[in-house]
Predict the structure.
Amino acid sequence: MSTPLLELRSIKKVFGAKKALQGISFNINEGEIIGLLGVNGAGKTTLSSIIGTLNPPTSGDVLFRGTSIYRDVPGYRRFIGFCPQKPNLNEHLTLRQNLEFAGRYYGMSETDIQARIKELSASLELTEYLEQQPSVLSGGYKQRFSIARSIMHKPQFVIFDEPTVALDPHIRHQIWKIIKGLKAEGISILLTTHYLDEAEILSDRVVVLDKGLVRVIDTPQNLMADFKQKNLEDVFLQLMQEPKE
Amino acid sequence: MQLSQLWSYKHTFKELIKTDLLVLRPQILGKIIDLFIWIITIVLVNAYIMPFFGVSAEYGVFMLASSAASAGLFEIWPSVTVFISDLEGEKSINYYLTLPIPSWMVLVRSILNCAMNAAIMGLLVIPIGKLFVWSLLDMSTISWFKYFIIFVLSCVFYGSFSLWTMSFVKNMLSVGSVWMRFIYPLWFLGCFQFSWQSLYQMSPVLAYLNLLNPMTYVSEGFRASILGQQNSLNFWLCASMLIVFTVAMGAQAILRLKKRLDFV
């Protein structure tokens, strides 16, 4: 069996007296989309921040291609893209400059940067906004630019933390298209989401977190079959009502 | 961490500094206008009004040298405000904390960003001041070599001081205290309006206590380079102590912010 792209081993995170994560373990394979689900406070953002190396775990390890990421954090960061829930573009730069610097930080050549901006702005329909400041954009466009910035350097693994939260349905569908496109390119994705339809459509497997623990990991199809439900939302509701084993 | 490993992050770090320079460029004119107002006010009061109050006109030149030392200090408050407002709002720092460099280097970048802002403020003090005090300022007494050294050291110190201050400010509501609790006492007691020797004559104990204030070394170091070594603390002592304070405050700030931001 091949080595998974990413391996989480007993990840725990404690904030004071609160145990946000209580020993999370699962793997993410090459080219796979993992949907990370859970109610508010389940630990989704905490876990994605740990995988994105924004915050360290209290204990446990994350292995990238079999090696602990903590042996060379900057090296691991070269392979990942992190798209936070709230777009945090540099408001003092134009959107083109935001993308250009995103490429330069990762050592891309100017030729590659310009080609990549052209490619991303065309596929994400951003071309007409490139010379503007982020402040003029609507939430949906900001999110699209945030996605573009996170994949500018062609990462092998992208973490999307609730990329469609509070967006209009048609923009959500556009972002789904983008995520599917990334998967088609062989990029692995961790998708944190509140929307169960989104997880059902996009995910190869879903991980349901509950109070910092993994409740289930499986494909949406298997879960629907096991729980005898027609969609993932009903599976989720049933799961949340059931007492934990 | 080995030096060669640190060197491998130079490209990303250089691009971060370039980002800051790009953001800084449109602000330069505004900063020069601010500087003009600051220098004109200081010189007008101290060189032209105070003599009618019995103070020597040379005090205007003394204060001009003090102003050269203090100009960069005024960059601390805006830097702290921007940093705290970002933490409470957009959190753009989170993006930089996931770039392929060690996270602490993002904070070193903040130090250098504030230092660059301080440099712009401090760079033109003497040329602008000379226009207003003209014959009172004897340019032949200025050691440009020492001036350059103390100028660079003070700018980096202000950057470090800025990060150190950021690490103590909890939220935007407490940003207003930055000036009154941190900057103002250190600045005003840091030999801005008086020399360390005059303080020593008044009270040796207070003078020695004032050696714990880094602003003393900034003020005295600048005056030693502009007005000559006579009547000032030893220039090289000032330069050395500024390096010590810069490293100590920067290191403490990084440790405090690492705990607060909980970064890897």
Remarks:
- Chain B touches chain A at residues 9, 11-12, 15-16, 18-19, 22-23, 90-92, 94-95, 97-103, 262-264 (CB under 8 Å).
- Residues 10-261 of chain B form one domain.
